[in-house]
Amino acid sequence: MNTLYVSSPTKTLKKYDGSQLRPLFSYEHFGLKGNAMLSWVAPTDVTLTHMVDYEDKIEESKICGDKMLHFMIEFFPANLSTGVMAQRLLASIIKDLAQAKAPKAVLSRKGDDIYVGQGKLSISIASVSAVSTLIHFAVNITNKGTPVKTASLEDLKIKPDAFAKEVLKAFSSEFEDVMWATQKVKPL
Predict the structure, then answer these.
(1) Distance between CA 148 and CA 44 in Å, rounded?
(2) Average pLDDT value over all residues in the chain
(3) Coil, helix or strand for 81?
(4) What is the pLDDT of residue 32?
(5) Do 109 and 95 form a contact (C-beta atoms < 8 A)?
(6) 136, 71 in Cβ contact below 8 A?
(7) Mean pLDDT of all residues in 152-173
(8) CA 70, CA 8: separation in Å to the nearest integer?
(9) 48-85 burial by CB neighbour count: b if 16+ within 10 A, else e?
């Protein structure tokens, strides 16, 4: 899996509004071909127009935060069940890495959400396009600008840049290992 941490977000990454979650975005804007994972820091304000989760859309939920660490994944082909499983694998990896850096904190994962105590640390969604599986996952860097009780990397004393690179490496390695596991088995 091709990975990239964008340390100086471009115009298209200045704010995550949901429009970035589309097929071939990483290829179009950053030259990442094929299976790809992109990460960057930016505020979040997902508009209803770009909201993918219909439960949130129907409730007109606010999905926003002043500063978040974003991860966007695209892999081929399109399969929503596999996408949701990959989304939960990413949540587990992020939770485990954060827990290792903040051993006294009480982190938990419920589905694709990560909590520190009662505060929600993450947001995420998995979906499919006509050609690919897409995941957006973001972690609060600060608790400012969030509409619900949150937790943040600041609370855990975790530096977002180094953490992003660890997550990219860990997920990419796990993804490649899963792909190899599907290619070394004799069919029945």
Answers:
(1) 14
(2) 96
(3) helix
(4) 97
(5) yes
(6) yes
(7) 98
(8) 13
(9) eebbebeebeeeeeebbbbbbbbbbbbbeebeeeebbe
Quick one: tokens of 133? 């599986």
User: Side by side, which strands form the sheet with 36-46?
Assistant: 2-6, 36-46, 63-75, 133-140, 122-128
46-86: pLDDT as tens digits:
989 999 998 888 888 899 999 999 999 999 999 999 999 99
What burial class does residue 181 get, using C-beta atoms within 10 Å of its C-beta: 0-12 exposed, 13-18 middle, 19+ buried? Answer: exposed
Mean pLDDT of 90-102: 98
> Are 136 and 72 spatial neighbours (Cβ–Cβ below 8 Å)?
yes
Q: Which two tokens stand for residue 167?
A: 């997550």
Considering the entire predicted model, what is its pTM? Answer: 0.96
Contacts of 23 (CB under 8 A, 6+ apart): 74, 129, 130, 131, 132, 134
41 alpha carbon, distance to own chain's centre: 12
Are 16 and 46 spatial neighbours (Cβ–Cβ below 8 Å)?
A: yes
User: What is the rounded CA–CA span in Å between residue 173 and residue 67?
Assistant: 27
pLDDT digit string (tens) for 136-155?
999 999 999 999 999 999 99
> Which residue type does 74 have?
E
